[in-house]
Design the sequence.
């Protein structure tokens, strides 16, 4: 430690704020646009949204509003037995009682404090204790007693800037990926749900934005009746079981070490999961590159948990929860067709309506999903769709790979900078090569 660094405690560096939950029985509290953060939302360092939202009245009655820049730390939940999520808000939000909001005092840089908490995760994890029913708990008094070496404020700012550069690039990649994924879904909806290019051609248009001219030229000029409703003339209408493989067989030796995707790491707003682990293969669904996974159990299905698998090694088989349904279009439909379909509201609504079981544990059977009907285009259209959307997914995959490398660099530098073992000037040279 440098001579001008000060040994202090976390309690001397920040203020801890508690949140809460508005009454669920008051529906008006839950119809607003204010993000209400709970443990399930703490999946990235920068946090701008949540699964649940409340009104200002709900926040005043049962929670707490905090500004952008506030640090959120999970202090109660089963997740704490394995990891300690830390996030920084990018907008005003409320939060529940399982989270502590943290604001730095005047002599501490807020960003520096956030990065210190990230680096201190092993120390935080060691202070977690189990409540009577096994839930992990990070007690506030233990948090306040944690010691840290605090550099001068100017040094804190320089250290924070190093990591901000890395985190900003990772966040930029995430946002770009989300926009491209949204664009892919918009193309799918226009072409295969709303049939906008066909309607445009019927109205006299000679082209459609984003559709290759030769594809547009091959479209019919009218819709015809079908069991699915009006569809483009010449297109087929098929049940999912005819056009897709549902839970196709994959070979994976029981007990073999293989990539594993837990339900908690399934995304709700991205085309592929970020977090993998390796486990000895047991009972679970198996999948390969090109497969689409959808959660079939409540509330994961309602929340839109869906994943497109495209980053395994060639020929590699992964596995995960038994609560997935695995979809793969039969050739010549492109694999991405399944993912975009699964992200559409009509598909998810159909799945939700076909759920059965107890009120607390409902699920949809794969056999029920086999009876969902889709409009199957002529070859020229689905081939063109693959060519238009495929590069978007390629870019998302490469951006995720870049972000993984940046995260590795961040995790390498973080403890060394915060302990004084690496000078800021040396770290800046490494990070400067990234930009």
Sequence:
């Amino acid at each position: 430690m440098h001579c001008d660094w000060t040994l202090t405690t976390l309690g001397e560096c920040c203020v801890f704020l508690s949140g809460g939950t508005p009454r669920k029985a008051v529906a008006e509290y839950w119809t607003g646009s204010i993000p209400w953060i709970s443990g399930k939302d703490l999946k990235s360092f920068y946090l701008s949204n949540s699964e649940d939202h409340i009104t200002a009245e709900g926040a005043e009655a049962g929670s707490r509003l905090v500004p952008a820049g506030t640090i959120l730390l999970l202090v109660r939940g089963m997740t704490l037995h394995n990891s300690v999520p830390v996030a920084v808000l990018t907008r005003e939000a409320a939060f529940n009682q399982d989270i502590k909001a943290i604001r730095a005092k005047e002599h501490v840089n807020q960003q520096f404090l956030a990065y210190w908490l990230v680096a201190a995760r092993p120390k935080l994890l060691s202070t977690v204790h189990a409540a009577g029913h096994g839930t992990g708990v990070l007690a506030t008094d233990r948090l306040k007693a944690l010691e840290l070496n605090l550099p001068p404020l100017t040094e804190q700012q320089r250290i924070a800037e190093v990591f901000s550069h890395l985190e900003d690039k990772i966040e930029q990649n995430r946002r770009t990926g989300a926009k491209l994924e949204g664009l892919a879904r918009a193309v799918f909806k226009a072409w295969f749900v709303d049939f906008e290019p066909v309607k445009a051609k019927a109205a006299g248009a000679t082209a459609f934005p984003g559709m290759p001219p030769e594809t547009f030229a091959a479209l019919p000029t009218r819709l015809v009746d079908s069991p699915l409703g009006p569809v483009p003339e010449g297109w087929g209408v098929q049940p999912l079981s005819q056009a897709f493989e549902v839970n196709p067989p994959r070979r994976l030796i029981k007990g073999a070490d293989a990539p594993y995707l837990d339900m908690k790491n399934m995304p709700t707003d991205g085309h592929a999961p970020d977090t993998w682990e390796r486990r000895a293969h047991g009972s679970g669904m198996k999948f390969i590159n090109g497969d689409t996974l959808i959660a079939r159990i409540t509330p994961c299905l309602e929340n839109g948990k869906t994943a497109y698998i495209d980053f395994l090694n060639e020929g590699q088989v992964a596995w995960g929860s038994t609560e997935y349904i695995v979809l793969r279009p039969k050739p010549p439909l492109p694999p991405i067709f399944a993912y975009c379909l699964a992200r559409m509201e009509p598909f998810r609504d159909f799945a939700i309506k076909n759920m059965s079981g107890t009120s607390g544990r409902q699920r949809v059977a794969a056999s029920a999903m086999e009876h969902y009907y889709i409009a199957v285009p002529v070859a020229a259209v689905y081939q063109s769709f693959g060519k238009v959307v495929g590069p978007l997914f390629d870019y998302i995959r490469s951006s995720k790979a870049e972000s993984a490398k940046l995260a590795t660099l961040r995790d390498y530098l973080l403890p060394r900078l915060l302990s004084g073992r690496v000078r800021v000037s040396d770290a800046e040279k490494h990070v400067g090569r990234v930009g």
